[in-house]
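Predict both folds.
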Amino acid sequence: MKKFFLTLTLLCGSLGLFADEGMWLPSLIGERIDDMRAKGFELTAEDIYSVNQAALKDAIVLFGRGCTGELVSAEGLLFTNHHCGYGQIQAHSSVEHDYLTNGFWAMSRAEELPNPGLTVSFLVKMEDVTSRVEAGEKIEKIAKEAEEGGKYSASVESLYYNNKYYLFVYQVYRDIRLVGAPPSSIGKFGGDTDNWMWPRHTGDFTVFRIYADKDNNPADYSPENVPYTPKRHFAISTKGAAEGDFTFVYGFPGSTREYVTSDFIDYTLNHSNPAKIHLRTIRLDIIAEAQSKDVATRIMYASKHASIANAWKKWQGESLGLARRATVAKKQAYEAEFEQWAAGTEYEGVLPVLHTKYAELLPYAITRDYYNEAIYAIELMGLASTKKLYAEDVEPHYKDYSPAIDRLIAVEMLREFGENVAPEFVPEWYTQKLAECGSVEAFVEWLFGSSRITSATDLKEARLAGYDFESDPAKAMLNAFNALYTEKIAPHYTSLNKEITELYKNYMRGQMAHQSERTFYPDANLTLRVAYGSVAGYEAADGIYHKPYTTLDGIIEKDNPEIYDYDIPQSLRDLYASKEYGRWGVEMNGHYTVPVAFLAKNHTTGGNSGSPIINGKGELLGINFDRTWLSTMSDLDYDPDICRNISVDIRYVLFVIDKIGGAGYLLDEMTIN
């Protein structure tokens, strides 16, 4: 009976429910549909996911390698976040055409800009293949068969720590063109200061279009391609949502670890996050100072700065949330209870072994963090990779690179590495060279001064001269660090993590057996999920309640021409003064304004950026783009009282397209209710 109940729990979760928590597999959403309908959902499970008819899943894409997008017209028009399309906007930008600062709007199909390498992936189907894997069938074989000779892309992913396996089949489109992007002072309004914070006033959206061949199939970029015709696209609601109204998010959440032990939380809170935050603070300060002095440098390092800063600030909020929730102590208390329950069962002893393995892993994990965040953060190390050294076209690798900035970063990163990493994990080559040079500063001067790969010009000349790149100081340094990492760190780190993962398979089953009343959803792993909740504010601190929405009034209050991230376009100031908002103006709090962003209780994480936030009728209300700062700990410990996702209100999106971008013609192809 115990075994039967555990199997049922793995498949469906229990009948118990943690309010608004969970990232549910769309193919199993029928198990949650009654709860969704009780909270305001008006459609069916088949409307969310179906392989037999067009469903909402067919209007969702994995955008690039880690965001979500949604189709909003029958002509392949796609919305995602500004920060998801930031790299493409930057790639098309220059001092002469600064689309980051000024925005970009194609006024015809001919003006839409291609983006080599950018893809979007539609989920064709997901299928439980656990029985096949457990019968000994190779996951590679299962995936390859599903690809049908290259027609699709497929992968088999494990869920519940290898207790379940699912096949995911995708159709990948490769001709994706930039249609529109607001100025960064709208799309990135508030910059790093407002990132992960509330109240938020960011118009975080970008518009792309998917192109296909004449038969609507994926194709490489060609002028002959035509706009993709989707099976389904979202209708857009301009009615908004009030506090308490049902919402759900449909997208590709990246990674959560809700079921880990106290050891992992302790490492994150007291070791990993503090080190990584400190190292990234140093890099960000160096880059920001250089950006403040030169427009070209600001553009060159805009995407890098945003990428570095995003996780940097997320880790800070995560640590604050974990500390506030006392998650380590809470996990330890649960583990003590679990061990008492597990006595005499097949799960007895699994936790003590996990604790031991984590203790063995600690020095390797810390060292790995310093390799990744210090040594490999020196961009010259990446340029020294064999693939880049011998690439036919080297220019793209240097387009956004400044050796002067990299030198400054290298000095600080090597200094931090030397002060925090055990001597046995430092390459002998580096120790000797450092001794010869006499200081970190002198070593970096020698490294950059002697290397022939610090610019595209030098690298090309070195090639023509028959230069031995293996003897280049940068290549020698990379080889030395890689060799030690491969010999002394990676094997132990990988081996111990493998043992820990195997232990988690048993511990996960034990948790499900122990808490039969608890709802267990699989951790996020960048596969399509549904999360649902309601529009809601929250108590940020004693006596401080945050309302669940913001408006254009808040943008005007923050507007500051002296600060790049708060210097809004003059056209937005003029619209606020005239109140000529058109169909996008609403009465809120007793005055006429435009809604900008709102909060909801949907359980989200990285990868959900760009996900549609949808009402009970299946209409698009907004575009998810962030969480509140303390909510970032929801990757490890979800708290329904304070965890909130942040979305840009779709009415603000349309307002900006129409009134700021002057691209109102795009609205004509949308279904707007």
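Second protein follows, with its predicted structure tokens after the sequence.
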Amino acid sequence: MFNLLTEPLIRMDTTAGTLEPATLPEVYAALMADEVDAFPALRPHQRHAWHAFLVQLGALALHRASRSTPPTTAEEWHGLISGLTPGYENDEPWQLIVEDITKPAFMQPPASAPDKLAEFKSAVETPDELDMLVTSKNHDLKAAVAATATINDWLFALISLQTMEGFGGAGNYGISRMNGGLGCRPAFTLTPSVRPGRHVGRDIGALLEQRESILDLDLTRDGGVRLLWDQPWDGTKAEALLLSKLDPFYIEVCRRIRLQADPSHRVSALRATSKGARIEAKASKGVTGDPWTPITKEKSLTLARSGFTYKRTVDYLWKDWELPPLFEPTAAEESSPQDMLLVARGMVRGQGKTEGYHERIIPFREEVVPRMTRQEFGDIARERITDVGKVQRILRHAVSVFAAGGNTDSVSDEHRARANPWADRLDEIVDTTFFDSLQDEFQEDDPAKRTQIRNRWLKNDKDGVIDHARQILQDAEDSLPCPAIQRFRASVRADSVFSGRIRGSKDGFPALFDQEGGSE
């Protein structure tokens, strides 16, 4: 029931302005023709799960068929996809509901015997209750409210759970592609467009191009298991699959789930626990060859609570972590540069809670794309972050002095705490243009001109970092409580602290002011 290969179950908004139901092969054909505007049932936190599924499945199908370019017709896609699961005349691995528990269903592994159905004791009435932690614990979205859910909602919830979920308590293990049960599976990728088809098409091609580099990790193998839901699983520890038995592009499942339908075709689900994770990957700490995730030699990236701030993004991509394969420009993108977008997505998980879904899109100019992975790009970015940090410290000190009534000798932790939000405001302002301005400097090869670009970014009497900091200081002086009798002195001394330190040789920027004869 609900065969994704032959039944038009997936709703998509098309460029023709229509809402069209489509089979999975028809979805691929429409994506390759760039005819898909959106999938209306897809929730924001499910975007990467759906995108990664489409890319991995497409790349698996093409590699198996020894093809390097995606087909354009639904008929060809049907043959490629069904070729991944030979031996199933009724397409069971592509049906959302299969009553025989000893046969696979889509993203639902089979059991070894019919009596194993008795282990599926936990009923799930709505897809949002099935979905990963963001909805199941009532933190970001209320759980179990999708009483009128469509098959699309079940489809996306199932993919999200099986390919993105972490540890959910005893018997509920998470995916292999994250560092520990409280980690996450972040995504960093380049794309010429955020349109679904262009993004999927680009990543499929890039993934095929990067296959050998992923194999070099010596974790997975050619000819290994591709789709984990067609492998029997009764939830025992002995059944745990080794990474070395999996294809580099493997699509995993982490939970024992079976969808079912009543006579009126109302869908629900049953869950069973397991005694161990589906993949024995604890020692890998998420280093599994996931093409979207930055890694070190020891572990994969777990996003910080702050998400993709400019400082965090620079750290993730140009400091402590190895660039993920799909962030690397392809050979075509290096030889024929074009404007590209960095798409960063990820869910931040905490202990028994969700700490937010984050997404950021950063444009990169065509002149920068071939060189953006170089160490030099990261060096310039970190230098700029250091400069902002210096200005923030000076701003925080000045605001603290004002909060202390201008008494520089009695600044307390309480006064510093009052100053922190104002220093954070500078970060928010810098964040909006950081990467655009960074590219201005990186594109300039002349060292003297680079210095001029940096200096204008820091101070130009309008929208430089220091100019914004001074305005924030004035806003703080207008807003923070201060006895009227002390306000004038507090303001003068705060301004003096800011001006003195910002021009000082110890931790300021004297060269900026020397060029102006020492004046501001």
